[in-house]
Amino acid sequence: MLVGIDLGTTNSLIGAWVEDRPQLIPNAFGDVLTPSVVGVDDAGTLLVGAAARERLISHPHLTAASFKRYMGTQHEVQLGRQRFRAEELSALVLRSLKQDAEAHFGQPVTEAIITVPAYFNDTQRKATMAAGKLAGLHVERLLNEPTAAALAHGLANKHAETKYLIFDLGGGTFDVSVVELFDGVIEVHASSGDNFLGGDDFRDQLVKTFLAEHAAALGVDPLKPSSALLERVARQAELAKRELSSAPSAQMSVTWEGKEYRKEISAPDFERDCEALLNRLARPIQQALRDARLRTNQLDQIVLVGGATRMPIVRKLVTKLFGRFPTVEINPDEAIAQGAAIQAALKSRNAALNDVVMTDVCPYTLGVDTARQVGMNEFESGFFTPILERNSHVPISREERFYTLQDNQKAIQLRVFQGENPLVKNNILLGEIKVSVPKAPANQESVDVRFTYDLDGLLEVEVTVVSTGHKERLVIEGNPGVLSKEEIDKRFAALSQLKLHPRDEQVNRQVIARAERIYEESLGELRQFISLKLGEFQGVISGQDRHEIARVRADFMAFLDQIEASR
Amino acid sequence: MTETIWSVLGIEPTDDERAIKRAYAARVKVTSPEADAAGYMKLRAAYERAKEYARRQQQRVLAEPESGEDDGYGDDADAPRLLEVTKPAAPAATPQQLAIGLLHASLERGELAQFLQQLEEIKAADTFASLDDQYHFVGRVAVMVQEANLEDSAWCGRVAQLLGAREHENLFTDHPRYHYAYDYLLGRYEEMRAADAHAHVEANQDDSGAPGYVHVYQVLTAPFDAERLSALTRSQGYHRLAVRLLERAKTDPGIVIPAENREWWERTSMAGQHRPMVDATEQRAPEPAAEDSFRFPFWAVGLVMFLVINLARTCGPDRSTMSVESMEKFRQRLPMILEPDLVRLSGDKDARKIVEQCDSPTRAEIIAAVYSTRRNQRGLQSGGKPATVAPPDSEIDPEVVRLLTRCRGAPQLDANGGESPARQ
Description:
The complex is a heterodimer.
Chain A: E1 2-7, E2 11-18, E3 21-24, E4 34-35, E5 37-40, E6 46-48, H1 50-58, E7 63-65, E8 76-79, E9 82-85, H2 86-105, E10 111-116, H3 122-134, E11 138-144, H4 145-156, E12 162-169, E13 174-182, E14 185-194, H5 199-218, H6 227-243, E15 249-256, E16 259-266, H7 267-273, H8 275-291, E17 301-305, H9 312-322, H10 335-347, E18 357-362, E19 366-373, E20 379-388, E21 392-394, E22 396-403, E23 411-418, E24 428-436, E25 446-453, E26 459-465, E27 471-473, H11 485-497, H12 506-521, H13 524-543, H14 546-565
Parallel strand pairs in A: 1-10, 10-11, 12-17, 14-18
Antiparallel strand pairs in A: 1-2, 2-3, 2-4, 5-6, 5-7, 8-9, 12-13, 13-14, 15-16, 18-21, 19-20, 19-23, 22-25, 23-24, 25-26, 26-27
Chain B: H1 5-9, H2 17-30, H3 37-63, H4 82-86, H5 95-109, H6 112-125, H7 131-148, H8 153-163, H9 176-203, H10 213-221, H11 226-233, H12 236-249, H13 259-270, H14 307-314, H15 319-324, H16 327-346, H17 351-357, H18 360-380, H19 398-408, H20 410-415
């Protein structure tokens, strides 16, 4: 069975095409959003989702979140005795989603379409592919997130003829796509984005203001607080950020080492603090519009996607930039997962969708490093020569010819870059390849370099020596951001050994974790009371009477709700 | 029968964009990118060429009734021309026209300090908040400054800085006039920053030998740019230099690093994100300016050059060259770089000489027209044909020919106020 997965920075979702419409699958908590958080409990067993998220406060050293930001890097997170790469942590989230889908459909799920930010580079995309493999899923396709949202929006209006812009501000990344819909063709004209901008950054802004104010009292360096303090402030900041979506001001209250620290934030203050972040939203939009050769008044709609677009300051900015109000038709948290489910149906050629075709673009320019002759024996190196221009429709394959620069040159070294700058030092190196050429005077020998960019957004480079016909393919060697096939197999075996809590136990785990978190955030007598109730609940769990567990759990949850509501 | 774009689309040649789209939509349902990648690539190429053909046909039809009206500046047909706004503001002027008029007046009087102050005030007032307003405002200020042709490079750099500098880089690619002007401005901005960096190196002799030092210094002291910062973290050499610079900036007031840059660095390097992967700077000197005795090393023979495309590309004002050479030299060189294209598009062997004698606004226009035509033609080539094998029918561009003709009779236009496209 083929499913669609939105592997997000903050939350992940899984969906499939059922009864002629995209349907999202709930997890053990009956919720379609599974937090992208992984933790290890005291017994060394893994926790994924809501239960792990609760433990971010009480066990910051045993829990990892926002690891999507490390995709395509060799960064490892230490959880207890083990170290994990971002691919592995993502794989654990995928595995949990896979289990939910299997429980829902009663059949094995082996193939998936996974969404990635449009602006993810080659290394990050390969890492996402590897995560799928580590979770035991065959990744049928990587789909750009704004394109997925465009599909969900386009399908809802498939008989219209319209041009719209998808504004996708997620937890960690920002993407923009300009889309045209006509005669059942959903055509992405241009995409742009910022890989370092998301809802998390707005939250961190609050964390920064809070720490700056209380740094002296807390006795910490505001730039380098301990991870326990950081998680605690971050949680309060997240709550305050959400509060500010509907209220004119919000209160942050952090309990640390037996003392309570407070800060009141008003909406205008928050907006002022976030000005630098908000300013960064305009450029990708302008870029995508200009690449699509459109002016703002030629767009019929601006569609908001991603949880962070709930922030009023973001909506206000969008209104200002376009001179009109944006549209929020689909749930901004669910649009991408719905799109992924639609793509799953398109991929398996579902009859209900045979009049719909979607085409996408490659959002960045890809090319090679070249040198120029500037004098008799002088050369300047480091120039970026594009082969595939940004926003070319994919799949695409293009070839260019390059010549030797020196007499008796023995080899040509090609370094492949991604980026928009005329100098390679400002662009991202994807890999390199060295090809031997026969000795000859300068300009006599040449190579044809073919770039092929496929539907997954992966690049293949093939070099042919013109005089000999010798061909070589780019193998990215020594790029620690990409796992080799052997390494994936090895890590797959290791991950399979790790135990995940059984699905029906996850709810209990989450309640315990939540109680621990509230305990950490409380003071004095209340703490003892929580501890007493928690002991009681754990006693009931060990009794293994399912009805009794359910009854006590409901009671306990109501008690916790009450504490949180009274703050 | 040979295959044409029309046979691929399955229609007769037409300039009706709607018909082209309809034909494409019908075909793409069968030849979808999923089902038939090769077929789709062919269909896509045909579709794009057909749309471009239709667009150009439409433009010609629109331009013919009032010849001389076509500004050749791309498709922003409704954008008010510079001429309108540089005249004293008409009664019904928009806030944007008023602001431009104000700035232009200061520039004409030579009150450069006042110009900067006004620009700052206009930016602070946030009057041009919408994307389209921002686009035209920035573009027009750039054109205005470029046409003023001032010697004061630092002042131009300051204007670019106030406009947002690299924030607008690559944005004007569909508007050759703005593009050319903004690139000129950015060139001066980079010059200003390079001068600053070199002054810093002069003052700190101990570090100046390190290759890439100037680059790292420039990125760290520039306004926040996540992509560029992260490019630094990807190389061990740059990474090391950056750490050293950040450390020094704590005690040396001469190094001003924006707080945002420092924060980003602390956060990402603390998390171990983007640890350097491949070391490129170690073996190769990416900053020729920083190394006096830079000679092309024989072991690094892997550097290549694609002559034809390169020649075509060098004409886009190249900032790296700007920082080394003086602007004046660059301006003289420009028509020379463009010459092959210019001759091809005008059919006139002496085109360059004519352009060199031209007044500077017309010259800028010709360069813009050549640039845009070449870009369009390039966009039409599919599958790696070298740029020199363009179809013969598209060689001579009437727009370039028209501008060159105007060049020959330039004096009376100059007498008319020296302004470019005359509206009468």
